[in-house]
Design a protein that fits this description.
Order of helices and strands: HEHEHHEHEEHHHHHHHHHHHHHHHH
Helix content: 55-70%
Number of helices: 21
Radius of gyration: 25 Å
Oligomer: single chain
CATH class of one domain: Alpha Beta
Structural class: alpha/beta
Length: 398
């Protein structure tokens, strides 16, 4: 027994060496983090996150544990994280104008903000972000000061506006800078670089570049591909309709539909229908008894576009099943997921159908479908949830 213990102890460094060690984050207030950085004589990296933030989870799972990333950040910075949803996060929201998470803040050892960035990134891009923070000409604060000192050179404006894409600052600043760059373009002869710039800078239908994006669908399709462009169109219109639904803003909905009608946007009819679906989704999420309009809009949309946009149908069935115990609502959710399956018979669609059937008390049907789900799974699908659900259904039938 002693020999085994000794062997394990001897092997432990080897075993640990093979494992990725994540960034060594501490938790505390901004004041505590700045004091720690001051005492250590190292710059501070502050990661602002949220439990509900999907890009945050991706960074935490795939990027922070990367060997090069953790080595660079643990060696170079004092690393802290603050939850955006907590009181200490709300203080940061106002102080540093944080509008989305993840946000990354970099300070020197004296507490001076050097750089601000955000969004999901690859490991190499995240390392470069840290290097930019310590390379004054590339740091966000330096670029911002340079802009306000009057630099309007085309190359600088191009680079600064692209930097602003990752910064959770006021969108008005980015749109102002983007407008300066757009004014320098020859509208009759746009290069691939300029078209790519317009695509990347169009994050919202109200962005300065949006009018160019919507009126240049053909060359943009040739640049990024028809499928990618249509996916982006759905994202832009869908997000705008979401915002209108949250505010119950019918004026905004009319504006979105007018934009679709008057611009040269591709997949016109689909986007008009999607606008209704996403508007009613936001209304449903605010008032859970308003599932009927959302369900009907999703069914109508799915009858035409199940193969083109399966995600919207999956989302509708998921939300209605998750938030409603109403039998009629569950029947509508089942109808929606069946339409989705007619477009794409995937593991996730079949698993969701199983959940709806099980919640509706249809155990025999649920058992048959969950078995189909497991059989249809691809190597990338984690069938653990389906197998657990299958055992649960079997036990409840006894």
């Amino acid at each position: 027994m002693k020999k085994n213990v000794i062997l394990i102890i001897l092997l432990l460094p080897i075993l640990l060496f093979g494992q990725n060690v994540s960034i060594d984050f501490k938790e505390g207030t901004l004041e505590e983090a700045l004091r720690d950085a001051k005492q250590s004589g190292k710059p501070l990296f502050l990661y602002v996150h949220s439990d509900a933030c999907y890009p945050c989870r991706v960074m935490e799972k795939n990027v922070f544990p990367d060997k090069e990333v953790s080595s660079y950040y643990n060696t170079t910075f004092v690393d802290y994280k603050i939850n955006f949803d907590e009181d200490r996060g709300k203080v940061l929201e106002k102080q540093f104008r944080i509008t989305f998470v993840p946000t990354y803040l970099y300070f020197d050892e004296d507490g001076v903000l050097l750089h601000k960035s955000g969004s999901g990134k690859s490991a190499q891009a995240f390392i470069q972000d840290g290097k930019n923070a310590l390379d004054s000409p590339q740091a966000y604060i330096s670029l911002k000061n340079k802009y306000y000192r009057g630099d309007r050179s085309t190359e600088f404006i191009y680079n600064f506006s692209n930097t602003l894409l990752d910064v959770s600052d006021s969108p008005d600043i980015r749109n102002e800078v983007v407008e300066v760059y757009l004014q320098s373009l020859n509208k009759d002869v746009l290069s691939s670089k300029d078209l790519d710039y317009i695509v990347k800078q169009t994050q919202n239908i109200n962005d300065a570049s949006a009018k160019y994006y919507f009126n240049m669908q053909k060359p943009i399709s040739q640049l990024i591909g028809e499928e990618a462009m249509q996916k982006k169109n759905r994202g832009l219109i869908g997000n705008a309709a979401d915002e209108a639904g949250i505010k119950n803003d019918t004026v905004q909905i009319n504006y979105i539909k007018q934009l679709i009608n008057e611009s040269g946007i591709a997949n016109h009819d689909q986007l008009m229908s999607l606008t209704d679906v996403r508007y009613f989704l936001s209304r449903f999420l605010k008032e859970k008894n308003k599932w009927n309009q959302y369900a009907d809009a999703a069914i109508e949309y799915g009858r035409k576009y199940a193969a083109k946009d399966n995600h919207t149908l999956y989302e509708a069935a998921f939300y209605i099943n998750y938030y409603s115990d109403n039998k009629a609502a569950l029947q509508k959710a089942l109808k929606i997921i069946n339409i989705a399956i007619s477009g794409k018979k995937t593991y996730n669609n079949l698993l969701l159908k199983t959940k709806i059937l099980h919640k509706s008390g249809k155990k025999k049907e649920a058992l048959a479908i969950v078995q189909q789900a497991i059989q249809s799974a691809s190597p990338e699908d984690d069938t653990g949830e389906a197998k657990d659900l299958m055992e649960k259904i079997k036990k409840s039938k006894r």
